[in-house]
Design a protein that fits this description.
- The strands form two sheets. The protein has a two-stranded antiparallel sheet. A two-stranded antiparallel sheet has the order 3-4.
- The protein folds into two domains: 113 residues, Helix Hairpins; 64 residues, no CATH class.
- It is of the alpha+beta class.
- The chain has five helices and four strands, in the order H-H-H-E-E-H-E-E-H.
Length: 186
């Protein structure tokens, strides 16, 4: 099983392979990749919670490090160096964006597969207590609806209370309307 250091080495290798090379870029690319290498363990730790699904943490770390690289290279524009070498910054951004979109698609596919493989929720569905029966009073109704959410069936219970209840009604005072309350003498 690969360790965190193995994964980080692989991610850094893939990102460095995506970087431009040549006389105009080598010094800057080397400096940038050294900075990314120092930052990688921190980014790995930030996404530790994503490790519950195999491969997800690696993809999120790779995408975040790529975003840092794009942020550092954002000032590069098309131009010439020494009148001979053509540096195309916009092409670099298109290339890095293409890689980022590929990582995004891998993350989406991985999470869809993980959701599809989740175990269903098993157990008793809690039931609501029976409604209070007070003669002559409007009665609340209880409804339970079932809906599919991300491939799972979810039960939703709703209490539809009567639109208007008198605060002095037995529903609020907990008094039995069949018994006359004792009269208090002044």
């Amino acid at each position: 099983m690969p360790t965190a250091q193995d994964w980080l080495s692989q991610i850094l290798f893939e990102l460095s392979a995506a970087m431009p090379s040549g006389p105009a870029w080598d010094a800057e690319t080397t400096q940038l990749m050294q900075a990314i290498q120092l930052q990688a363990p921190t980014v790995w730790a930030m996404y530790a919670g994503y490790a519950t699904i195999f491969g997800r943490q690696q993809l999120y770390v790779k995408r975040r490090l790529l975003e840092i690289i794009v942020g550092q290279l954002r000032t590069k524009r098309n131009g010439t160096l020494g009148g001979v070498l053509r540096v195309e910054g916009e092409a670099l951004f298109r290339h890095l964006d293409f890689i980022r979109r590929g990582i995004d698609q891998e993350i989406k596919d991985l999470e869809v597969r993980a959701r599809a493989n989740m175990a269903p929720c098993v157990g008793a569905i809690p039931h609501l207590p029976p409604p209070i029966r007070v003669p002559g009073a409007p009665q609340p109704t209880f409804t339970t609806t079932f809906a599919a959410v991300n491939g799972a069936t979810v039960a939703t219970s709703v209490i539809n209370a009567p639109p208007c209840l008198d605060p002095a009604s037995p529903l609020f005072t907990n008094e039995d309307p069949r018994v006359d309350p004792p009269k208090v003498q002044p």
